[in-house]
Amino acid sequence: MTKENESYFEAIAKIIKLTQEEKIKWQTATKKPKILEGIEKIDSAYTGEYLGKTLRIYKVYTKSEKPYLPDIHTSFSLLVRPTEYQWTYSIVLEIIDKDGNVMWTFPNLNILSDLYEEIGYKIAGVSDFICELLKEK
Amino acid sequence: MIFYTKQQKMHLSQISEWASITGAALTLGGIVLTLLVFLGVKKIRSYYSFNIRMPDLIQKLRDHNSSLQKQFRDFDSNKKDIQYEINQIIAIMETVEHKTLKDLRQKIKVFLKNNEDLTDSPEKETAWKFYSDTAALITRISELVEDRKWDYK
Question: Which pTM value belongs to this model?
Answer without folding.
Answer: 0.77
